[in-house]
Amino acid sequence: MILKDALLKGIKLLKSADIDTPALEAGVLLCHVLNVDRSFLYSHDDYSMKDEEYEKFAAFLDERVRGKPLQYITGHQEFMSLDFIVTPDVLIPRQDTETLVEVVLGHVKDTGLKNARILDIGTGSGCIAVSLAHFVKDCRVLAVDISEGALATAEANARRCGVEDRVSFLKGDVFGGLFNAIAQSPFAKVTEHNEEGIFDIIVSNPPYIPAEEIKTLHRQVKDFEPGTALNGGEDGLDFYRVITCEATKLLSPGSLLAFEVGYGQAKDVWGLMERSYCAIKSVKDLAGIDRVVMGYRK
Length: 298
Ligand code: GLN
What we know:
CATH class of the largest domain: Alpha Beta
Number of domains: 2
Domain Methyltransferase: 114-257
Binding site for S-adenosyl-L-methionine: 122-126, 145, 205
Radius of gyration: 21 Å
Keywords: Methyltransferase, S-adenosyl-L-methionine, Transferase
Number of strands: 9
Function: Methylates the class 1 translation termination release factors RF1/PrfA and RF2/PrfB on the glutamine residue of the universally conserved GGQ motif.
Largest sheet: 7 strands, mixed
Protein name: Release factor glutamine methyltransferase
CATH architecture of the largest domain: 3-Layer(aba) Sandwich
Helix content: 40-55%
Bound molecules: glutamine
CATH superfamily of the largest domain: Vaccinia Virus protein VP39
Strand order of the largest sheet: 5-4-3-6-7-9-8
């Protein structure tokens, strides 16, 4: 099969399956099979594909048509200009989440914070923890998650981005002893510096979809992304409730707590933070939706 014909066939198939960007995705899958970058598709459109290459392409197209997200097929997603490994154990990093990382980077820059001690709760792929470690060269990050599969993926991403020396990992459940485990962890001991509070910054993009709404999500999300990464309890706010409360024990006055929130949740999360945090504000994402809520420990 000639490359150009394979590509056209792929585009047609994805289009018939109602995939929004069929040409882009067929191209990505073809590049993945051939292990080449996109320019190859234009410069070698007469390339004669080996049978096994075409079969692999056809199998990937079939998976995509059945709803599997592209990133779980290729195993990669770009985030903050870094390349992240994604496995079915983790949520695919979203562009919206870059808003949260940018807010934290802005805070570090504006305050001149040195040797920042950062906690990322529900690290998933590690996209937040690893990109903060990449951009803030003197920080140390503790990344926690309930899922061993997610932690393994996040660790692989830390190594891939060369920040494994400054990112530590801890398994735990925010509803069951995680915060005590953090306080007892080697990270807390190393970074305490005899100050009040263990962290200068706590950041989280927790699961925030109300349980009943999960079944209404696009099948690409609900059938393939991990339920534990999505389910925020009855009203979607369970994680915000426990984290706003427990985080106060780990932060010293003036330290930052910053959350990603779901559509329409900013006001509620703001309300949860009011008791123990001051100068609370929300920040919009590129689509103009309130995406981050942040405040400083009173
Ligand atoms: N922290 C990861 C991310 O932002 C995972 C979030 C989650 O699983 N809820 O992508």
